[in-house]
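Protein: peptidylprolyl isomerase
Species: Certhia brachydactyla
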Amino acid sequence: SDMGRGLSLLLLPLALLAAPARAEGGTAAAEEVQIEVLHLPEACSPKSKKGDLLNAHYDGFLASDGSKFYCSRTQNEGHPKWFVLGVGQVIKGLDIAMMNMCPGEKRKVTIPPSLAYGQQGYAQGKIPPNATLIFEIELYAVNKGPRSVEAFNQIDKDGDKKLSELEISQYLKEEFARDGKKRHPSAHDEILADIFKKNDHDGDGFISAKEYNVYQHDEL
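Structure follows.
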């Protein structure tokens, strides 16, 4: 299912333009993402919100000279990107720029450095320091995100409102069986350890609903 695929996407590392974006300097607060809607479908539903799983294509350009530094269509055999909105899987400016967007919508967005790669830039992505970025985005799908209540309850087999190592281990096995990819046996343990390292903030051996980051508009 899309939701299942989304969760494995969230749990496995994503290298999708996800360098840390920190606002730097006193003027950062005043800088905003500029959004120009290029195409809006007549039926605009559902609109994207924090925690949704989005499927989109986008091209990234440097505002300074218009050169293209990123094109999702030339990566991953041309498949659109899946990512979860509003959780830092992409740079902060994209998290902002893609809110309240509907399937089929196209936007051109301008992102200031403070909401992109700041003073450091991102050499690996050919982005210089203090670069303003422009993205042309086409959104294809808006799905319930992997960190939704439904997904949490699906993993939480005993219903105790926390996820044990056994529950997540079982979930990973099911996900791996579903996607059918060949993996080294150690991959399961490494991913499981990584999930707990990144999510079990209080170190009690469980991932609570709060640690799992179920969004406020959802009720557990």
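Remarks: Strands lie at 34-39, 53-62, 68-71, 81-84, 106-111, 133-143, 162-164, 206-208.
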